[in-house]
Design brief:
The protein has about 140 residues and is of the alpha/beta class. It has 4 helices and 9 strands, in the order βαβαββββαβαββ. The chain has a 5-stranded parallel β-sheet with strand order 1-8-7-2-4, with helices on both faces. The relative contact order is 0.23.
């Protein structure tokens, strides 16, 4: 089972645990147009590995291999983030099954659920919690 971790707790882990890393599993379109977590003040960079391939949104069949090619090891604590926490949960479960036992899902993702007007980013998630982010 993959544990959901609140964004602020994830940020604290990224700042204090040398082996902790954040993997953003959104699509390249989301990275380019919505923004990315900015880990520069934690002396880290977010690793970009899509869970689904835009525009077909089919599962990235090379996901686990891309994790290994990025240099991840079973000892690392790996936090996964997407828009709302759904794709990142699936990606974390796949990573766990592939031999990465310390995986976590960032609860509510980068933008969180939609508000009453159907907009994301204001009620929960990385951005709503005021954590650092930037446009690509």
């Amino acid at each position: 089972m993959v544990q959901n971790i609140p964004p602020k707790q994830t940020w604290d882990a990224l700042k204090t645990e040398p082996a902790a890393q954040l993997v953003d599993v959104r699509t390249d379109a989301e990275w380019n147009f919505v923004g990315l977590p900015d880990l520069s003040s934690a002396a880290k960079q977010v690793v970009l590995i899509p869970w689904q391939v835009y525009p077909s949104m089919e599962r990235n069949q090379g996901f686990e291999d891309q994790m290994r090619k990025a240099g991840f090891t079973p000892d690392q604590h790996i936090y996964f983030i997407c828009r709302s926490g759904v794709r990142s949960l699936a990606a974390a479960a796949a990573a766990r099954a592939a031999g990465f036992p310390h995986v976590y899902n960032v609860a509510d993702g980068f933008e969180g659920p939609p508000d009453a007007a159907g907009h994301r980013g204001g009620t929960a998630g990385w951005k709503a919690d005021g954590l650092p982010w930037r446009q690509k």
